[in-house]
Amino acid sequence: MKKTSFKKTRCPIARTLDILGEWWTILILREAFEGSRQFGEFQKNLNIPKNILTERLGKLVKHRILRPTSLNVGGKRFGYFVTDKGNDILPIIAALRYWGKKYVPADSPSGLKFIDRRDGSQVEFRMELISESGRHVPFSQLTVLSK
Fold first, then answer.
1. Where are the extended beta strands (E) located within the chain?
2. CB-hemisphere CA count at 13 Å for 14?
3. Three-state DSSP class for 81?
4. What is the separation of C-alpha 4 from the centre of its chain, rounded to a whole number of angstroms?
5. Sequence-separated (6 or more) residues with CB below 8 Å from residue 76
6. 32: CB partners within 8 A, 6+ apart
């Protein structure tokens, strides 16, 4: 079955899912944020088939979310580094982690933690909604419109 492309739709959520929607992609990004750089590290940590990893890394590079960088003089070994555009995905990863911890708890704690670089303290994710006028809006007071 051929996948439908959403890249030309007006909906930004659908366009984002066109790039990030496969679950391996989010897990690859999680690994990149945790410090994995090389193809073999991603493959070992995720137990992902080589062909799928190759395809997903290629897509993340194409969309400038990861940047391949030569790790040696001959240029045969590459590392994949998160770009500034990729760093903007971190709140999505944090939101997925928050929701998963709350509604799909595991028997053992997740290894993924967010740490403040300034003082080393652990950071928890909280999402805030702010109106155009600068007021905080609770989710209970939110209405979602399609246009």
1. 66-70, 78-82, 114-115, 122-123
2. 10
3. strand
4. 21
5. none
6. 42, 66, 80, 81, 82, 86
What residues have CB less than 8 Å from 86, skipping those under 6 apart?
A: 29, 32, 60, 64, 65, 66
Asked whether the beta carbons of 125 and 132 are under 8 A apart, the reply is no
Domains (ranges, CATH) in the chain? Answer: 12-141 (1.10.10.10)
More confident residue, 132 or 8: 132
Residues 44-68 have pLDDT tens digits of 999 999 999 999 999 999 999 999 9
* Short-list 35, 28, 66, CA closest to 49: 28
Residues 59/25, Cβ–Cβ less than 8 Å: yes
This prediction has a pTM of 0.80
